[in-house]
Design a protein that fits this description.
This protein is α/β, with parallel strands linked by helices. The chain contains 7 helices and 5 strands. The chain has a single domain, classed as HUPs (Rossmann fold), CATH 3.40.50. The longest helix is centred in the middle third of the chain and has 19 residues.
């Protein structure tokens, strides 16, 4: 199966890539960047992913531009439900690239995180897959959560402390009373 894998960062790519390659899948990565704030954080994640992809001979497609304003407009006044938009935006972009590139399917490294809403990711991915005519591939990569963390630490990879958007950064660092 020729699979396009949405990759949010280097550390979260480690275990899913290993599993998919062990399943004899032909994997290419896709880095979506509009949800990652601030821009310096986006660049740190991209640099780490570039180094890892080179090391693992993982071909990548890199999203161009940086549409901060589009992301903020889409989630303004819906901050508590921002992940719904974010999952949809990332998976839609991945599905469109997968369709254009004639991939058999698409998936995401978001399925590696124990902090993400798998049911919402699955529902979104499957709906977009039907809409665009490319299969959404689900695998629960959370089984390798600790392994991926250990490997990323051993490799000295930059490890981010929050999901990506400014709201998740605030939740991580600001403890409100």
């Amino acid at each position: 199966m020729k699979l396009l894998l949405h990759t949010c960062c280097g550390p979260c790519t480690i275990y899913p890539l290993e599993v998919l390659r062990n399943m004899d899948m032909d994997v290419m990565g896709y880095f979506y960047r509009h949800n990652i704030h601030p821009f310096t954080e986006c660049m740190k994640r991209e640099e780490t992913l570039r180094e890892y992809a080179d090391l693992m001979d993982l071909k990548m497609i890199w999203q161009q531009g940086y549409e901060l304003e589009e992301f903020l407009r889409a989630v303004a006044f819906r901050e508590k439900d921002r992940c719904r938009y974010c999952y949809h935006a990332r998976l839609k972009a991945t599905a469109l690239v997968a369709k254009k590139g004639k991939f058999d399917g698409f998936s995401t490294t978001l399925l590696y995180s124990k902090f993400q809403n798998h049911r919402r990711i699955i529902d979104t991915g499957e709906a977009l897959g039907k809409q665009y005519g490319v299969k959404f591939f689900y695998h629960d990569f959370r089984e390798g959560w600790k392994q991926g963390i250990e490997t990323s630490k051993e490799r000295g990879m930059y490890r981010q402390a929050y999901c990506g958007c400014i709201y998740s950064e605030k939740e991580r660092y600001v403890k409100e009373k």
